[in-house]
Design a protein that fits this description.
The chain has 308 residues and is an all-alpha fold. The protein is 58% helix and 0% strand. Helix 3 packs across helix 8, helix 13 packs parallel to helix 16 and helix 15 packs across helix 16. The termini are far apart.
């Protein structure tokens, strides 16, 4: 990818394999399951993504580096040959693409279209005489809109699958029964845990009387005096209380993530009637928190105190 423009068909096939693995855990199973758009999955944490590599934009950023080397006349044989054979003293930015140009050189020159929107970064790189590929990739792979809850996902030490579950909940993409009813996949949307109200993100995680008991037990254990609110308000509270790198912020972040994941598993076990003992859900959440944080040396003494 540092030398050649990869065909879009090849990138699409590779991304199909990655997409199947992310959503199904298996690269062989053909599935259209994609709750969140792949471009969003590949975006940065602060923009609501998971920072999975966007192959197309990474290829473009690497080709921009080739364009940079040609423009700066880097001291290597390939750049000398390009300047001697194609440019013949012309500036690469003013050179018109010709039919006789190689497909590789055409691919490099086409990056000028993207570069025109990043002239400030380009001029800064020229002033410093240093091209940072990651910086240009982040500019290409950006839609300019940030989410307020990015810090909840970033640097989270919970289970990866629990983090993804929380991330999908933040995007309101978990297949709750109210969402499935809107799509015409279900006739009833009553909560499977309390059988009292409609199952939504807000009700399932924070208003259901069965999950309220779980939340109260976990919050008391991690020594946080808080009563769960509605989803939007709760997300703002979680973002505020988990800001920073201290042990308290990390414990709360992992505790909330593991609790949301365990509640979602409880809901699924109830829905699909799995033979799983859900009576000790609180103990399992505590075990997950301890296991995930005990591996981090600076958190061990705090975790040990919580276990007393």
């Amino acid at each position: 990818m540092q030398c050649f423009p990869i065909p879009k068909a090849v990138i699409k096939k590779i991304e199909d394999i990655c997409r199947r693995f992310v959503w199904t855990g298996n690269t062989e199973v053909k599935s259209r399951k994609c709750p969140v758009a792949w471009n969003r999955v590949c975006s940065r944490y602060k923009q609501g993504g998971l920072q999975i590599m966007n192959l197309y934009w990474w290829n473009c950023a690497l080709l921009m580096k080739c364009l940079w080397n040609i423009s700066e006349k880097a001291d290597n044989l390939w750049v000398r040959w390009i300047n001697c054979h194609y440019l013949k003293g012309m500036d690469v930015m003013d050179y018109d693409i010709k039919n006789s140009n190689s497909w590789m050189f055409k691919g490099i020159l086409k990056q000028r279209e993207y570069m025109m929107n990043m002239m400030q970064n380009w001029n800064e790189a020229k002033a410093k005489r240093r091209f940072v590929t990651t910086k240009f990739y982040n500019c290409l792979n950006s839609d300019g809109s940030n989410v307020s809850w990015a810090s909840v996902i970033q640097n989270n030490k919970a289970q990866p699958r629990a983090i993804v579950c929380l991330w999908m909940a933040c995007h309101m993409r978990l297949p709750t029964r109210d969402r499935l009813k809107r799509f015409g996949m279900l006739q009833e949307s009553v909560c499977l845990l309390c059988h009292a109200e409609e199952e939504s993100h807000n009700h399932l995680f924070f208003e259901c009387r069965k999950t309220e008991v779980v939340w109260q037990s976990i919050l008391d254990w991690i020594e946080v005096d808080h009563k769960p609110l509605k989803w939007e308000d709760e997300l703002l509270w979680i973002t505020a209380v988990t800001r920073g790198k201290g042990w308290r912020a990390m414990v709360v972040k992992v505790g909330i993530t593991e609790t949301i994941y365990s509640i979602w598993r409880l809901r699924n076990d109830t829905c699909f009637k799995n033979n799983v003992d859900n009576t000790n859900i609180v103990d399992r959440i505590k075990d997950s928190i301890v296991y995930r944080l005990w591996n981090i040396r600076k958190f061990r003494q705090h975790v040990a105190r919580m276990m007393m």
